[in-house]
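Backbones bend. Shown next:

***
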Amino acid sequence: MTRKLAAILVSDMVGYTRLMARDEAGTLARLKALRAELIDPEIAARNGRIVKVMGDGMLVVFDSVVGAVEAAEAVQKAMAAREAAVPPDQRIAFRVGIHLGDIIIEDDDIFGDSVNLAARLEGIAPEGGICLSEDAWRQVQGKVSLHFDDLGERELKNIPGRHRVYGVNLDPARLTPEAFEALTGERLELPDKPSLAVLPFENMSGDAEQEYFADGIAEDILTTLSKISDMVVMARNSTFAYKGQAVDIRQVGRDLGVRYVLEGSVRKGGNRVRITAQLIDAQSGDHIWAERYDRTLEDIFAVQDEISREIVVALSVKLGHGEETRIWSGGSRSFEAWECTSRGFAAHLRFTAQGNREAQRLARKALEIEPDSAAARTLLAWALIIGGRFGFLPDREAALAEAEVLAAELIALDTRNADGHALMGNLHATRMRFDDAIVSGELAVELAPSIATNHAVLALTLYRAGCFQACLMRIRKAIRLSPYFPDWFLVALGEGYRGTGQLEKAREVFEYFAARAPDNLLSQARLACIHAELGNEAQARAVAKTVLSLDPGFSAARFVEIAPLKEKVERDKFAAGLVKAGLPE
């Protein structure tokens, strides 16, 4: 026998049997193309050797763990981009496990406990993810520009003992506690109030079409709890980043800076639904409360309220009488209208022309069924705003005008509706009515203090109004509520620093923004501007070339007027920085 130390990579395709049953010839053709165009070249580029292919699985050896991790990272990132437009139930995705250990080589095959351990690591990796053993993790520290999550000690099937496992963070939107502190200047510490993350509920129905149903239940619970002033609730952007992953609750607590985590599952069949929910202390791992509900679909809203109430009681959160009335008085709700709205929000969040049209259609259908539905009005208003701004709708002004009517109706139906005030603030800012926009925005965050996007929209309004210090305070709050925040949060953070004269901090933010979103004109143009203002002429010119490659017709004047600032002196200053960087006036 020949023995050697090697990096072992085991990969497996998710849902292979289901995809083969659906379209055997098509699935095999797609796999063949993936190997020829992506997988085999990435492995060969890092001196890997494919030992064998087992239907939907692959065993590969590398001389270096770095090579194995880099190959896996390249394939997984390319797969995510390549399959993004494919319907979820038809996507091809892989799980990968990597271990460094002793192997036995016989002919062209390899054997040994190390191979088995790598295979077990692959089995616990999330869809599209990579898991490493501790031995492999040690070898790549400081050698690859990746963030690793400590997933704790795990028992692996038929492998003696407990093994520490690390996951590779492949999400560019993930803000580590260290990066949070570097960007915001604040530590990611536990808040004084009870803090909670509501993870996406697992769809146990075996039907990918029911994902919206499980997501909708978790989102409704999250939204309800976000209205409570005595609780800090993480935003959807952050908690739903864990969707489809086998997570370690303690790691979630560390990543998001929360004390408690709610997780659950949903199984829907016919007119019946089973919901399980459990509240866990993320520091100790102890279960605080758990319950199972078997109900009809018509009772779904009562279950959501029940779960929310149980959490409030378990965490001893204080509720004022008026606040309690607002939170639990949902009124009569139609399941059919709720289903349309849940599907509509899922379509809206795709931010595509097709998704936008579908969101509007479903919102209007929900309003036909339930004319006083606040959720459907909110969905339709946001879809119209996004459709108008992104050019999905032919008449921008008509879309914004209808959105303003809907926002006014929301406020007329309930003067304490945070969504209505947030929408109105956004529309006021669009029309340069900044004083009104700030009043509406501040009321929205007062009424629903844990809605991160409302804080961020207000921060952008404050930036455009020239209130830079207030902008910084507000966007830091938004990022604290959503460490997996959308890219556009960085506009407010960087411009807040820039407006208060902290140019080096602004540069750090815009460099992070550009690295996270290299094809985003908002990031590159601002980075060029800040380099020019700091006197970094060479860097400014280099970034300006990137800007022109993204938009050959770019002009400083047009860019500044996309979201115009209130004060002319600030508009002129911004334009001058862009021109100084070498961009056309």
Summary: Residues 24-45 form the longest helix (22 residues). The first strand starts at residue 2 and ends at 13. The chain is about 55% helix and 15% strand. The two ends are 71 Å apart (CA to CA).
